[in-house]
């Protein structure tokens, strides 16, 4: 990852000081760097490549993925009016909404500059589609806010668009760059898709079962924003009439929600177990997706990543 960090630092340079300040503020806040790490692991799992492609620009591709992800975070925090991320103030809380949105645009455009330099149309096609789908996912999520009629299928669509799509792109880009078969590309894409879905479902669970110190944000933030995530959808579909009434009212009027009561109901019913089971199901599907990929220490690491995602507590 050191080579990726070097690329990131070099590509953040701007003649406009505020651009660098905002971009560095959020990127240097930490985070798991899971998406660029996924890309690098997937590249290694492919094994030896033909001599003419032995030195691919994987660090640049990983940095592109991180820039796209960071841009979405900047935009998300403005849309969600978030004030805390990774245990410190969000960029919009420090610099304001307008700089956060504009620097998010800068990171998107810098990512596309880097794509052009790599010079691979198949790579550009994957990343262009991914950024488009992510934007659609953001709009879908916005449409779902304060809507207690959202069901599990519709919510999973949001996850696959908004979160899992970038995991999918990160996982399959090395295979795309190296011109691998459609079967291999789809194996990595499906793996990333299920990994990303499991990651978000675990986030849903932790929003009601984690601790604020571990999460770096307040418990119940999704509910404060009127988001019907899977634990709430479970209560709306499987809970008692009192549970359903409480959750419906909380989603429709998050400013008036009895947050402690909702968290208690989520924790005392089967909602968290159901969400955990859904995440584990996605992890199993991700493991099955890697069946066509030859066994190696890197493939094992990809499988370990699935287990980490569903067992993490932060």
Summarize the topology.
Layout: H1 2-11, H2 17-27, H3 34-45, H4 58-80, E1 84-85, E2 88-89, H5 91-95, H6 97-118, H7 121-144, H8 152-177, H9 182-209, H10 212-215, H11 221-224, H12 230-238, H13 241-252, H14 259-268, H15 271-289, H16 297-311
Helix pairs in contact: 1-4, 2-6, 3-4, 3-8, 3-16, 4-6, 4-8, 7-8, 8-9, 9-15, 9-16, 12-13, 12-15, 13-14, 15-16
Note poorly predicted spans: none
Question: At CATH's second level, what is the architecture?
Answer: Orthogonal Bundle
Supply Rg: 20 Å
CATH superfamily: Farnesyl Diphosphate Synthase
Q: Give me the secondary-structure category.
A: mainly alpha
Query: How many runs of DSSP E, i.e. beta strands?
Result: 2
Average residue-wise pLDDT: 91
How many domains is the backbone divided into? 1
Report on this structure.
By secondary structure, this protein is mostly helical. The chain has a single domain, classed as Farnesyl Diphosphate Synthase (Orthogonal Bundle). 75% of the residues lie in helices and 1% in strands. The protein has 16 helices and 2 strands. It has a two-stranded antiparallel sheet with strand order 1-2. α1 crosses α4, α3 (34-45) packs antiparallel against α4 and α3 packs antiparallel against α16.
